[in-house]
Write a structure and sequence with these properties.
The chain has a 21-stranded mixed sheet that branches. It has one domain. By secondary structure, the protein is mainly beta. The protein is 4% helix and 48% strand. The chain is elongated and about 75 Å long. The chain has helices spanning 20-24, 35-45; strands at residues 6-7, 13-19, 29-33, 50-53, 57-61, 65-67, 71-74, 82-86, 91-95, 110-117, 126-130, 137-143, 151-157, 166-172, 176-182, 194-202, 207-211, 216-218, 220-228, 237-241, 249-251, 254-261, 268-269, 271-275, 280-292, 296-297, 307-316, 322-323, 334-336, 340-342, 352-355, 360-365, 369-376, 384-391, 399-404, 413-415, 423-431, 438-446. Mean pLDDT is 77; it is low at 299-309 and 312-360. Strand 37 and strand 38 form a beta hairpin.
Length: 447
């Protein structure tokens, strides 16, 4: 691949593409360090936009590198074809604009077609940092940053914000796989109107995505796919909003989460979603599913003062208590069991609660024997409705269902359900005015 680096009339570089092997003798065999080659290529680009091209192979680095607006690394290959091994202690690749808001619109560059490996990196190393850029494109993989304070992908604004980006990052075995951060407040916290897609493979004690420092996403989409491996003691979290007590949040976003938990040992998997006291995860739409193999998702700890609302599809099983919008009542929203939301308020201990919300879809697997659920989150003067799919346990005694809470005679007491294992009853619950509630079994079928 020949270089396409162009120059201005005075001989200074004007941008283009630099082949790191052909131009500066980078070593694609992984035997020698290629720091000198990378440093020369960035010096040749200067402050101009341009790309560094890497042929297939493995490259070793121990220094840190800063990429400015419009600069990136593009291989044109699959992520598995090019591996960048990092041996340093700091940030390996940092894409940002130190003059954000002063010069131009700070356009982001393209980083695509390679894997960053931190097997030999220091305890606080970061594989990839991006901040203070608009409209960047990232499609990479990051793995094995397992130091005590290590981060795989670090979104960290310093002088501006990062918006309108497209990100596809596959992460594997990182202490903290993805962290959203900011130095300061206000617009520095914004990661709005972007498309984030993360594939996360988590081992015991590892965290998937952390939003901290009041960072927020408003609009765009957030997609998390992955696998959580079990462990006898697992303090990890699939997603953590506001662990530092700040107002981190995700709002008005298309959210799709599909995680599988557990392994052959049947040990505990990580907390699914944990929200800090001032954090919010609200007015989003999409699907949230935490599937349970042999492991179990733990309940997260903390005070029940979170805000949460979600319109879309959720799973729920018999192990927990609260499902839906806990924000209006101020109760915590946490996850335990295979795929459910559970609260910590003592008044709800042992009883389930269905928080009514327009357009929500809920699926619940009953426990054998008596099941009790309360109707909550009614808004006076507001009509609300939900469709609730209630499934009988696959074996053992049938589950009965009693609704409690404010309602009319038609919705009170026990509902007549199928008593056959594995059968599903479809229940419609609605309120025309936020005061009177009706619950009717619409039909029964095999699940």
């Amino acid at each position: 691949m020949a270089d396409s680096l162009s120059h201005n009339a005075d001989g200074t570089p004007a941008g283009g593409t630099i082949n790191l092997v052909e131009s500066y003798d980078a070593d694609p065999t992984g035997v020698n360090f290629s720091d000198t080659a990378m440093a020369k290529a960035l010096m040749a680009l200067g402050s101009n936009p341009g790309d560094i091209a890497l042929p297939a192979g493995t490259y070793k680095y121990q220094d840190s590198y800063k990429f400015g607006p419009g600069q990136g690394i593009v291989t044109g290959l699959d992520n598995t074809a090019v591996t960048l091994e990092y041996y340093g202690d700091g940030v390996f690749i940092h894409a940002y604009d130190p003059n954000f808001g002063v010069i131009g619109s700070s356009p982001g560059g393209v980083f695509s077609g390679f894997t960053i490996d931190g097997t030999k990196a220091g305890r606080a190393a970061k594989g990839f940092q991006l901040g203070d850029l608009n409209s960047p494109t990232v499609n990479i993989a990051i793995q094995n940053f397992t130091g005590a304070a290590a981060i795989g992908a670090w979104f960290a604004n310093v002088v501006g914000w990062s918006e309108y980006g497209t990100f596809r990052i596959d992460t594997y075995n990182n202490t903290a796989n993805v962290v959203f951060d900011a130095d300061g407040s206000g617009s520095l916290t914004s990661y709005d109107a972007s498309v984030f897609m993360f594939t996360l493979i988590l081992y015991p004690g590892q965290t998937g995505v952390i939003w901290r420092g009041s960072c927020q996403q408003y609009a765009g989409s957030l997609t998390l796919y992955g696998q959580c491996w079990g462990g006898s003691s697992n303090a990890g979290t699939v997603m953590n909003l506001g662990p530092d007590g700040s107002g981190a949040g995700v709002r008005n976003v298309r959210v799709d989460i599909n995680f599988e938990c557990g392994d052959d040992t049947g040990t505990v998997g990580p907390v699914s979603i944990a929200l800090g006291r001032a954090a919010y995860f609200m007015q989003n739409i999409g699907s949230i599913s935490f599937r349970n193999n042999d492991g179990r998702f733990q309940a997260s700890t903390g005070l029940p003062s979170y805000r949460f609302s979600h319109a879309g599809w959720m799973e729920f099983d018999a192990s927990g208590d609260v499902l839906g919008n806990a924000g209006a009542s101020g109760f915590g929203l946490q996850v335990q069991g295979g795929s459910l939301w559970t609260g910590t308020a003592a008044t709800y201990a042992g009883d389930g609660v269905i928080y009514n919300g327009a357009g929500d879809y809920f699926a619940t697997t009953l426990a054998s024997g008596a099941n009790t659920y309360a109707l909550a989150n009614l808004v006076p003067g507001r009509a609300q409705k939900l469709i609730w799919h209630v499934v009988q346990p696959s074996f053992g005694a049938a589950g009965t269902l009693t609704l409690t809470g404010a309602k009319t005679t038609r919705g009170s007491g026990a509902l007549t359900l199928s008593s056959t294992n594995g059968y599903e009853d479809v229940i419609e619950i609605w309120t025309p005015d936020g005061v009177h509630v009706y619950a009717v079994v619409l039909g029964t079928h095999f699940h």
